Amino acid sequence: MEELDGKVAIVTGGGSLAAGIGNGRAAAVRLAESGARVVIVDIADRNMAETQELIAERGGECLSVRGDVSLPDDCAAIVRRAVETWGRVDVLVNNVGVAGPPGTAVDVDLDAWDACLRVNVTSMMLMSRFAIPRMRAVGGGSIVNLSSAAGLIGGHPSLAYSTAKGAIVNLTRSMAAAHGPDGIRVNAVAPGYMYTPNVYAQGLSEDDRERRRLAAPLRTEGTGWDVGEAVLFLAGGRSRWITGVVLPVDAGLTSALAVPDSMTVQSPRPH
Question: What topology is assigned to 8-249 in CATH?
Answer without folding.
Answer: Rossmann fold (3.40.50)
